[in-house]
Amino acid sequence: MNNVFTYELDDNLYINLTNRCTNACTFCIRNEYDGLGGYTLWLDKEPTAEEIIKEIPDPQKYPEIVFCGYGEPTARLEVLKEVAQYIKEKGGKTRLNTNG
């Protein structure tokens, strides 16, 4: 399954914005696996903010909504900010996993 840009692990929702990354860390999971938790995380295309928001009808359902995937979330800063604003307006909590 490709183009999984939102996926659930434990009780949290994760958002995969991009495959682009500014680093080449030797310990990165993407060097050894195509996915995590049964989800394939390599994206065929980068999702729009609207596509992501459509996947999050109730942000309060999750303890955290985490921007993390197979790329650096801040490489798509404008999309990240738009989605984070939506989550905040709906009462959700966010976390950003970044290499920066």
What does this entry look like structurally?
With 100 residues, the protein is α/β, with parallel strands linked by helices. The chain has one domain. The longest helix has 13 residues, at 77-89. A hairpin with a 2-residue loop joins strand 3 (35-36) and strand 4 (39-40). The strands form two sheets. A four-stranded mixed beta sheet has the order 1-2-5-6, covered by helices on one side. Strands 3-4 form a two-stranded antiparallel sheet. The chain contains two helices and six strands, in the order ββββαβαβ.
Keywords:
19% helix; single chain; globular; 4-stranded mixed sheet; 6 strands; 100 residues; 2 helices; alpha/beta
Helical residues, percent: 10-25%
Average pLDDT taken over every residue: 89
Please state roughly what percent of the residues sit in beta strands, choosing from under 5%, 5-15%, 15-25%, 25-35%, 35-45% or over 45%.
15-25%
Strand order of the largest sheet: 1-2-5-6
Global outline: globular
Radius of gyration: 13 Å
Outline the biggest β-sheet.
4 strands, mixed
Separation of termini? Answer: 29 Å
Domain module count: 1
Question: What is the H-and-E element order?
Answer: EEEEHEHE
User: Which structural class do you get from the secondary structure elements?
Assistant: alpha/beta
Q: What count of helical segments does DSSP give?
A: 2
Q: Total number of β-strand segments?
A: 6
Return residue spans where pLDDT drops below 50 for at least 5 consecutive residues.
Answer: none
